[in-house]
Model the fold of this input.
Amino acid sequence: MTHTQVPAELLSAVKRDLQPIQPLASPSRRALVLLPIGLMLVAGMPAFWHWQAHVKLAPWTWWGASALEMVLSLIILAAAFREAVPGRELSGRKLSTLIVMACAGFVIFNSGAQLPPPTSPHDWMHWVWECIYMTISFSIPALVTPAWFVARALPNRPALAGALCGLGVGIMADAGLRLFCWDGGTHLIAAHGGAIVLLVALGAMCATLVERIKGRSAGTSDSLSARTAD
Amino acid sequence: MSWESSAGFGVSILRKMDSSGHTDQEQDLRLVALMMAYQRGELGAFEQLYAALAEHLRHYFRNADSDRSVADDLVQDTFLEMHRSRRTYTPPLPVRPWVFGVARNVLARRRRAAHSHNQHTRALVENDSVPATQVSEVPVSDVIDIEHALAGLPASTREPWLLHHIVGLSFESIATRLGITAMAAKLRSSRATQALRSALSGNRKEAR
Done:
C-alpha cells in the first residue's frame, strides 16, 4: 500500500512549528568558534593556577608546538561536530586516522618535556593528581560549548561524538598545560594523558545522557496521536 | 543486519525505486531544492518531501526491523524528527544520507524504548500474583502453546496483550504506561488475540 499523503496529525504538528530556520554552520566553522575558548585555556590556565613564571621561561618552540596542538584540537572538534550530523558520520578509516593523529600529536608535541619525574612515589602521585585536577577543573566548563553543539545536532553515535569532543578539549587543555608543566616520562603519560582520557570518558557520558534525555522528551508518533487527539 | 548496512540498503532501494523517470542526479537536486524550501518554512515542500521519501523509508524500516507492524509509526517518527532537526541539514549536501541518518536515529530510539518496555513488562509479569486457581484451570499443553505463540508476536502487540490479559490493567493504564493512546492499546491487544487464535488453531490442526 502506498501512502503519499502526509498523515493529518503529522501535518498539524509540522504546521504548528513551521518557521524559517538557519541551517547549522559547517563543522569547521563551528570548531573555529571555539578558538577563543582554546586561547582562554592556554593563557588562562597558567594564570589561574599562578604558573606564569614557568610560562615565561618556556622556549618559543614550545609556544609553536602549543599552537600546532591547538590546531589539532580544532580538527578533532570539527570531526566531532561532523560525527553528530545524521548521514555525515565518520568512516572507520577517518576515525582511526584521527585517533592516530591525536596520539602522535600528543607524543610529538610533548617530546620537549625532558624533566625527569620526581624520585619519591609520594611526590610523583602528588604531581600527577595536581596536573589532572588543574586540567579537569579548567576544562569542564570548556567542554560545555562543544557538548552543546553536539546536542543541537542529532548524533547516531552519541558516545563517539561526545568522546571526540572530550578528546578535542583535552588536547586543547594540554596545549596550555605543557607550557608550565615540563615533567616528562611517566608523569606525562599518567597525568597529562590521564586527564585527556578522563575528558574523553566524560564527553562520551554527557553526550549519551543528553541523547537519552532528548529521546525521551521527543516521544513517538503514538504520543503525537495522543497529543493531537487531546 | 547492522544499521550502517541497512542504511546503505535503504539508499540503494531508493535509487532503484525512482520510477519518475528522473536520473539520480536530478532527483538529488530536486530533493535539495525541496529541503532548502522546507528550511525557509514552506509547508508544500514538506509535503513533497514526504511524497518522495515516505515509501522508501517504509521499505527501509521493513528491512531493518523484523517488527513490520511498526514501520508506519517509524516513518511518521522519522518525519517528525526531520522536522525537529531540520537545521542539521546543510545545503547543498545530498538529502538522502541525511534522511536515512535521521531514520537510523529513530530506529535506535525505538529499539531502546522497546528493550526497556520489555524489561519493564517482564518485571511486571514476574511480580504479578496471578491467582493459582486461574493458572491451574488451564491445561499445561495450552500454556506451552500460548507461550510459543506469544514469543512469535512482535513486542509492540505482545505487551498490551500481556498487560491487559495477564496483568489485568485497563487500556487507559496501558496507554499511560506505554505512552500510546488507549485506542492504540486496544487495537494492538486485539491484533495479538487474533494472531494467538490463528497460531493456536494452526497448532491444534497439526496435532490432529
The mean pLDDT of chain B is 76. Residues 128-203 of chain B form a domain with the Arc Repressor Mutant, subunit A fold (CATH 1.10.10.10). Residues 70 and 147 of chain B are 22 Å apart (CA to CA).
